[in-house]
Amino acid sequence: MNPLLKRAAIVTAAVVIADQALKIWVKTHLFIGEGSYTNWGVGISQLQLKFVEDPAMPIALSFFRLFAIGGIVYYMIWAAKNRNPHKGFITCLSMVLAGVIGNMIDCMFYGIIFSQSGNSVEMISEIFPITGGYATFLQGKVVDMLQFPILSSIYNIADVAITAGLVLMAIFWKRYFPKKEKA
């Protein structure tokens, strides 16, 4: 396997696995609105885990996400074979891809495999409930849980990966795509 594609697969898989593991834990252990401040001891002293769900997205957005996933995968394979892109660029693109995949998994399957989450201890979501899920295919809600003290919104690992990948691409764009000197 091409080393760049191997890097892309490893980064994408690592982010998706971390994202889904935390989302599943939050969904099956916390009720909506529950959270706690945690001292991580690494300069993020007030990172709060707080469970919220984004409403189901319109089907059109789900199809856009699927199109984006296909486009990014196609481009990475094409670029690895034809362009020899910078490994940092492939890493950033893999982070974006992983984030889109992570949120797409929520939309596609969470409505089918989880019971509805509620706002009390008695209403913590259950995985594979006997009565079935709370929504149909592509109508699941995205799970968010990371609230940073300087930001008012709540995110998930997928959102952070997308943002970090895009910001790093912007910062290092000239390194990833140096201008070729004309002879």
Computed structural class: alpha+beta
Q: First CA to last CA: what distance?
A: 35 Å
**Which strand order spans the largest sheet, edge to edge or round the barrel?**
1-2-3-4
Number of domains: 1
Order of helices and strands: HEEHHEEHH
Low-confidence stretches: none
Number of DSSP E strands:
4
Beta-strand portion reads: 5-15%
| Mean model confidence by pLDDT | 91
What is the overall silhouette?
globular
| Main beta-sheet strand count, sense and barrel state | 4 strands, antiparallel
- The radius of gyration over CA amounts to 19 Å
Number of helices: 5
| Helix residue percentage | 40-55%
Structure, explained:
- Helices cover 53% and strands 11% of the residues.
- The chain has 183 residues and is an alpha+beta fold.
- It has one domain.
Which key features would you list for this structure?
about 180 residues, four-stranded antiparallel sheet, about 55% helix
What's this entry about, in short?
This protein has about 180 residues and is an alpha+beta fold. Helices cover about 55% and strands about 10% of the residues.
